[in-house]
Write a structure and sequence with these properties.
Helix content is 65%, strand content 8%.
Amino acid sequence: MKTLKSLYLGENPVNFPNLWKRAFIASLTVLIIGIGSFVVRGLNLGLDFEGGTSYEVRSSSMTVSDTREVLSSLGAADSRVQKVGDDLLRVRSDIDDPQKANELRELLENQIGVVETFEQVGPTWGSDVTSKAIKALLVFFVVVAVYLTVRLEWKMALGALVAVVHDIIISVGVYSFFQFEITPATVVAFLTIMGYSLYDTIVVYDKVREITGRLGATEKYSYTEMMNLALNRVAMRSINTSISSALPVLSLLVIGALIMGATTLQEFSVALLVGILVGSYSSIFLASSLVSRLKEREERWQQVRSRLEQKGIKFENVRKIDRQEASKPDLKKKERIEGVRGPARGRPAPTRNSGSIPPRPRKKRR
């Protein structure tokens, strides 16, 4: 609680660079698990991506195993059967022939119950939707990379894109590990995740640019130390934004999906909830650490670090910048605004003639 209070007051209580290595190991572990699950188990793609037929049958007495036995009589024993709620069965089959699909529907109505919803999607439509979703992701990455490079710099653009890719892989890994169904609503949620992650990352970058513009001219601190100050300044904002964004999504997941049985809401809300939490984490522990490492390799910041080391300052532990030092204005910027710069600062200001008639020029002596 004391740390949260200090973060809320804009102080510098957390040493984030000391946590970057642990965060990198944790992220790498989760990424390996997610990629491994994707390779071994694959993704549970929805009907719109793979094609086939889907039925929702109302029956209170039939179980999943009983339904599989009924489907085996028509050669559809490999169909996916899912219990939705107390009396609703969802049957997913790869059959794309309209005649066989109608035969399967009649079989379900005669031996299981009333077919409330029926949907059939061809394989061409599914492949078309998949290709368009991949193109949308690629266009998104290109546009974001160009914008951030122009607006900020390429190092920050690279850090933001790495954080977004990290968030997407972890979210997809969660869907693969728990075999949640991926639908077009899930793709929309993934795009929302990327936008949220970018927003959080750009907030961090904007703050560190402000701090480096004010304290960087003093050459008293390294770039990593100023990044640490920026993270302490925006951490509470990220926490509040994440909590306020996660609460409605969590209520949507608990009330809509678990209590009311709306599985479509589950497909959308799980991706959003995972993305909100991972997006806040990656902007603080991943994107910022990558930018700090890249900036520390620049000649300017290497010279600053070497001069500080000559003064006896060791960088084994990142120094904390106190609140009074961090709030000092940018003196060079103030001088530029007032028009006083360089050696002219010690000279008296020139006086102006208040009369309307200019003075007569002096005659040259012969």
